[in-house]
Amino acid sequence: MLKGLIHNLAKLSTRGTPSRSRSAGKKVLLSSEETAEGMFLPEARAFCNSTDLSKNEAEVIKHENICREAGKTRTVFDFKSYMLQKIKSVNQALDAAVPIREPIKFHESMRYSLLSEGKRVCPVLCIAACELVGGGESTVMPAACGMEMIISMCLMHDDLPCMDNSDLRRGKLSHHKVFGENVTVLAGCSLVALAFEHMATATKGVHPKTMVRAVGELARLIGPEGAVAGQVLDLLCGGKSDSGLEELEYIHHHKTADFTEAAVIVGAVLGGASEEEINRLRKFSKCFGLMYQVVDDILDVTRSSEQLGKTAGKDLLANKLTYPKMIGIDKSKEYAQKLSKEAKEQLVGFDPEKAAPLLAMADFVLHRQK
Fold first, then answer.
1. What is the pLDDT of residue 115?
2. Residue 283: pLDDT above 90?
3. Which of 99, 153, 223, 266 has the fewest Cβ atoms nearer than 10 Å?
4. Are the beta carbons of 356 and 74 closer than 8 angstroms?
5. Predicted pLDDT at 317
6. Half-sphere exposure of 319 (CA within 13 A, CB side)
7. Which keywords accompany this UniProt record (predicted)?
8. CB proximity list for 82: less than 8 A, separation 6 or greater
9. In this predicted structure, what is the pLDDT of residue 12?
């Protein structure tokens, strides 16, 4: 029965595997001067300037691009400042998109998870992809907010007792522990509806056909042939002794990589990308998303709940399929590094300065500690 379901779900998806071609590309230089955690907290500036930091924290990337202009001028990309600025812009836009209104308690529940301290990876990916191909932040911001609304819904529903049954999310109590399971279901559904409404009505200066394509890409990738399919198989495979790497890769490609693909492709489409650019960014986002989940699997068994800001070890307790469980921690780390390399290869040929944020985000995700 399980194999039959996997076969049927696999037939629904038309997405291929990431390109494994090699290219010389540009060098990515890493340093270990600061912590990755410090980038994504409101008090980041004070935290990152502190000298009392653990030696075991993740590397913060000061990514250098070697520009191809005359003279071969070297410029330094400040990833920390970039992320602080983009996260601030996204948070302000989210706050404005979901104001307190009647019913007040219900809107407070929507804002509880939406405005919590997250890494904002998908909305920043959306903005960076748009800017990579010549678009602007103001054009893509409604779509970036829509991505975060959908991500928040997924996290709220994932934490429910009927799903992953988690008590912590982003360093505080899960939504249903504060507002109850019934409100969590309704608030999540409302955020999805609002995501598409906001994206369609607040986006300015985009041709209707382009907007329809962007909405269609987003709906397809989060729907029954995308992220939902991955979640379904994840639930069905838990505790099954005959599940293997094929099922695990299908789950992670859909449950996680489809979200990063949606973010990158929607941003690229709204930014006016060519079909060739969209195809390359699709490969980048698939590798990026799978890498994100592989690292997440590793952190689940190597970090504490306090360090992660969510319940640690829950995948192990639920007997879920994970890469450390299937191939071990060391080989999981090797696989994550391989995916990072393949993702960055897809950005060769783009303007180095405009590609710097996506390259640095790939490095950050590979080395993140929460």
1. 95
2. yes
3. 99
4. no
5. 57
6. 8
7. Isoprene biosynthesis, Magnesium, Metal-binding, Transferase
8. 357, 360
9. 43
| DSSP per-residue codes, 23-87 | ----------SS-SGGGGSTTHHHHHH-S---TTSPPPPEEEEE--STT--EEEEEHHHHHHHHH
Q: Hey, which residues does 74 pair with through a beta bridge? A: 66
Q: Give 169-178 contacts, CB < 8 A, sequence gap 24+.
A: 169/113, 169/116, 169/309, 169/310, 170/113, 170/116, 170/117, 170/118, 170/309, 170/310, 171/116, 171/117, 171/309, 171/310, 172/116, 175/109, 175/112, 175/113, 178/109, 178/112
* pLDDT for position 310: 57
Determine contact, residues 335/324, Cβ cutoff 8 Å: no
User: In terms of residues, how long is the chain?
Assistant: 370
pLDDT, average across residues 84-91: 97
| Tokens 């609304």 found at | 149
Which residues neighbour 341 within 8 Å (Cβ) at sequence distance 6 or greater? none
Judge whether residue 97 has pLDDT over 90: yes
Backbone dihedral angles phi then psi of residue 252, each to the nearest 5 degrees: -70, -40
Q: What is the pTM for the complete model shown?
A: 0.77
What is the pLDDT, as a whole number, of residue 3?
45
Distance from C-alpha of 362 to C-alpha of 260, rounded to nearest angstrom: 12
Mind giving me the DSSP string for 306-323?
Answer: HHHTS-TTHHHHTT---H
pLDDT in tens, 180-202: 999 999 999 999 999 999 999 99
| 190-207 burial code (b ≥16 CB/10 A, e <16) | bbbebbeebbbeebeebe
CA 307 and chain centroid, separation: 19
Select the more confidently predicted residue: 117 or 74: 117
Give Cα 112 distance to the centre of its chain: 19
Q: Which two tokens stand for residue 214?
A: 């962007």
| Whole-number Cα distances in Å, 332 to 205, 293, 317, 338 | 44, 10, 19, 10
